[in-house]
Amino acid sequence: MNFFPIMLDIEYKKVVIVGGGHVARQKLQALLPTKAQIIIVSPSITDEIAIYVGQGKVTWKNKQFEASDLDDASLIFAVTDQEEVNDAVEQAAQHWQLLSRADAKGRVDFINPAVVRRGDFVLSVSTSGASPGLTRKIKAELEAHYDETYIDYIEFLKKARREIIQTIQDKYSKRDALASLLDPQLEEWAKEQKWDKCNAYVQKLVTGARQI
Ligand SMILES: C[C@@]1(CC(=O)O)c2cc3[nH]c(cc4nc(cc5[nH]c(cc(n2)[C@H]1CCC(=O)O)[C@@](C)(CC(=O)O)[C@@H]5CCC(=O)O)C(CC(=O)O)=C4CCC(=O)O)c(CCC(=O)O)c3CC(=O)O
Ligand SMILES: NC(=O)C1=CN([C@@H]2O[C@H](COP(=O)(O)OP(=O)(O)OC[C@H]3O[C@@H](n4cnc5c(N)ncnc54)[C@H](O)[C@@H]3O)[C@@H](O)[C@H]2O)C=CC1
């Protein structure tokens, strides 16, 4: 299957998770960094999900699934351990609502990649359902390689790129300056939190280009 990978903005959209077990917890944790309005429909939830409910991060409807639970939902996760319940969710989902079934049966509008977040830097991994175990393993490798230091590095790149785009008019100088931002030296300095050096480097790029 050739899935089409995209980054969805689901801020304030309604997301319904049907089921409250370990898989629901996994999907919920992937959704939490967004500002989606998350609702869990399940007669039981894990202790970890209960903590998120207590913190007001998710709404829990303590009940068996009914079709009306999907009203206005943009994304739907059918993640119960009962195939017939997941089938009922699929039946009730409108064609414009995007449905994900954790049992990978029936209608599959989307599947979930493993995600590593480092600020604006987002890595997602998928085997298109071939081997979720391998996906998880590769995620762990990426987590180790792209560690927390990348959060500040990406933030620095974002600001420096903006400055270059706003201050350098000539399109070739701009292109060269943007390419210079990827100098491995900058990455090293950023990881060592040597921001003075990073900023001086950017200023040199900007003023150097102005003189052309
Ligand atoms: C199709 C898909 C649909 C979907 O859920 O979107 C799907 C389906 C199924 N997973 C199953 C099993 C496992 N899933 C995991 C883990 C993850 N599974 C995730 C996604 C996906 N799983 C989608 C494909 C993505 C891809 O291929 O890349 C991850 C990446 C993201 C997430 O869950 O959101 C998350 C890692 C999250 C993280 O670490 O961050 C592990 C490993 C573990 O938990 O340690 C195992 C056991 C090992 C194994 O089976 O390989 C089963 C059999 C269930 C059974 O036995 O009955 C099915 C159903 C079937 O295959 O029929
Ligand atoms: N995609 C993935 O990553 C994985 C998918 N799976 C699949 O996901 C399914 C669920 O796995 P777990 O979360 O581990 O199971 P679980 O047994 O921990 O949780 C099942 C949940 O479904 C809820 N449920 C049952 N009937 C319901 C109903 N009528 N309405 C609403 N909720 C209902 C239960 O209350 C429970 O919270 C598995 O059966 C398997 O098919 C399993 C492992 C990984």
TrEMBL record:
Pfam family, any one: NAD_binding_7
Entry-linked Gene3D superfamilies: NAD(P)-binding Rossmann-like Domain (3.40.50.720), SirC, precorrin-2 dehydrogenase, C-terminal helical domain-like (1.10.8.610)
SUPFAM superfamilies on file: NAD(P)-binding Rossmann-fold domains (SSF51735), Siroheme synthase middle domains-like (SSF75615)
Record GO terms (molecular function): ferrochelatase activity; precorrin-2 dehydrogenase activity
Key words, A-Z: NAD, Oxidoreductase, Porphyrin biosynthesis
InterPro entries in the cross-refs: Met8-like (IPR028161), NAD(P)-bd_dom_sf (IPR036291), SirC_C (IPR042518), Sirohaem_synthase_central (IPR028281), Sirohaem_synthase_N (IPR006367)
Enzyme class: oxidoreductase
Catalysed reaction equations from the record: precorrin-2 + NAD(+) = sirohydrochlorin + NADH + 2 H(+)
Pathway info: Porphyrin-containing compound metabolism; siroheme biosynthesis; sirohydrochlorin from precorrin-2: step 1/1
Statement: the UniProt record of this protein carries the keyword Oxidoreductase: yes
Signal peptide (residue range): none
Documented EC number(s): 1.3.1.76
One biological process term in Gene Ontology: siroheme biosynthetic process
Domain Siroheme synthase central, residue spans: 124-145
Transmembrane annotation, as ranges: none
Protein name: precorrin-2 dehydrogenase
